[in-house]
Design brief:
The protein is of the alpha+beta class and about 230 residues long. Helices cover about 30% and strands about 35% of the residues. The protein is globular, with a radius of gyration of 17 Å.
């Protein structure tokens, strides 16, 4: 299994252009270490879309879904550092999902990723899920240029916190797909064919939104502990 833990927080957003350089500095040197110091947080990765919007996709892998509602995590959200409070003002269009990792295929994590958010059409949930986990996703990791494929399903509603009040209300994530690979070209081609919007919509998905991303930064809890 390429991902750590049994759940993940998935975030996608833009940053005001004038704050991008400072955001990436803060996110790397303060925010990642702060989040990965919370018990149960295992790895954070930040990805950037060279062309698509939103520009950023961030994933935090956690031991269990309830970590994302733990007192330790909520305490951080309700008591942001001064730098965090300043950076929250520059966030635009935050989408934040607290999700179970319901199916995973392949091993390892490539540096390129296709991240897709969607919602099943009511009444077609079972058929869409069956197609994804029995046909579409299992075959991907063995393809040239690809490494792993994952299905996420929303498990918790994100509570209102002081961080969210500063940046504005977050949109939720119903379901999501993440396919990673070592070839950006292979990942990009997948977004136009097997897992493109028309293909997913034909199988019973609506609200399909996604893009191709490149990993920009990664930090695990073990790396943080070792550096300390």
């Amino acid at each position: 299994m390429a991902l750590l833990g049994k759940a993940a927080m998935l975030l996608s957003f833009d940053i005001a252009p004038e704050a991008i350089v400072e955001h990436d500095d803060w996110h790397t040197h303060e925010h990642f270490p702060e989040r990965l110091s919370i018990p149960g947080f295992l790895r954070g990765t930040r990805w950037i879309a060279p062309q698509a919007r939103p520009r950023y996709f961030v994933m935090y892998e956690v031991e269990q879904l309830d970590i994302l509602a733990s007192p330790a995590y909520l305490e951080r959200l309700n008591n942001p550092t001064p730098w965090t409070a300043q950076m929250m003002l520059h966030y635009r269009g935050m989408t934040r999902g607290l999700c179970r990792i319901t199916d995973s295929f392949g091993a390892g994590m490539g540096q390129a990723a296709l991240f897709i958010r969607f919602k099943p059409v009511p009444g077609r949930e079972a058929a869409l899920r069956k197609w994804l986990v029995e046909e579409a996703l299992p075959a991907l990791p063995s393809q040239t240029g690809l490494a792993s494929a994952h299905l996420f399903e929303g498990g918790l509603a994100a509570p209102a916190t002081n961080e969210q009040r500063i940046r504005g209300k977050d949109a939720a994530v119903d379901s999501a797909l993440l396919v990673t690979g070592y070839s950006a070209e292979a990942v990009s081609a997948l977004s136009q064919t097997g897992l493109g919007g028309p293909q997913l919509e034909q199988r019973g998905a609506i609200g399909v939104r996604g893009g191709v991303y490149q990993m920009a930064c990664s930090l695990t809890e073990r790396e943080l502990s070792s550096s300390a």
